[in-house]
Amino acid sequence: MKEIKNQPEFWGKALIAIYVYGRKLTRIKNKFARRILLIPYVFMDTIITRGLLNSQIPHRLKIGIGIKIWHPFGIIIHPDCLIGDNLTIRHQVTIGKAKDDGGVPILGNNVSIGAGAKILGDINIGDNTVIGANAVVTKSFPEKSILVGCPAVDISSELKR
């Protein structure tokens, strides 16, 4: 429930509550009970997450603790991605495959993603990385990177001067 309280606005709370509910369903061993409890999840995911918020955050997705979603509209995350703790994500973000037969991103801890950013392909994003608004990230970057542009480049060394 900490994940829900952590959200800055109502729709972020709703989106995370639906995700957490779906995630907990995967732990239920009894198939009959899981199928019965899946009915409200499918309804909420279809009507609220996909219909109203135009987002896709599948219950299969593995996200660490401390996620914060600002303006949870148009967020698409591939179910096979791995996401660390303390992710901050904004609207219109896509995290997924670059091509149909490709891999998916792995995001470290304390990653902040700006509005409209795209993170695509079999890549790794290091801990404590900031991804700027509308950046298109298609290659791996180490920890403490600051990524901007299309294609994304790391400007962290330029800011240290």
From TrEMBL:
UniProt-listed InterPro entries: Hexapep, LbH_SAT, Ser_O-AcTrfase, Trimer_LpxA-like_sf
The protein's name is Serine acetyltransferase
Which CDD domains does the entry link to? LbH_SAT (cd03354)
Q: Which family does it belong to?
A: Belongs to the transferase hexapeptide repeat family.
The organism encoding this protein is Enterococcus mundtii
Keyword Transferase among UniProt keywords: yes
Keywords from the named record = Acyltransferase, Transferase
GO BP annotation list: cysteine biosynthetic process from serine
SUPFAM superfamilies to which the protein is assigned, alphabetical: Trimeric LpxA-like enzymes
